[in-house]
Amino acid sequence: MDNPTLEELKERLLYLKKEIISRIKENSEKINGIQIKGDEGDFSNAVYSREIIYDLIEKDRKHLKEIEESLYDIEQGTYGQCKRCGHEIETERMKAKPTAKYCIKCRNIVETSG
Ligand SMILES: [Zn+2]
Question: Distance from the CA of 112 to the center of ligand 1, in angstroms?
Answer without folding.
Answer: 14
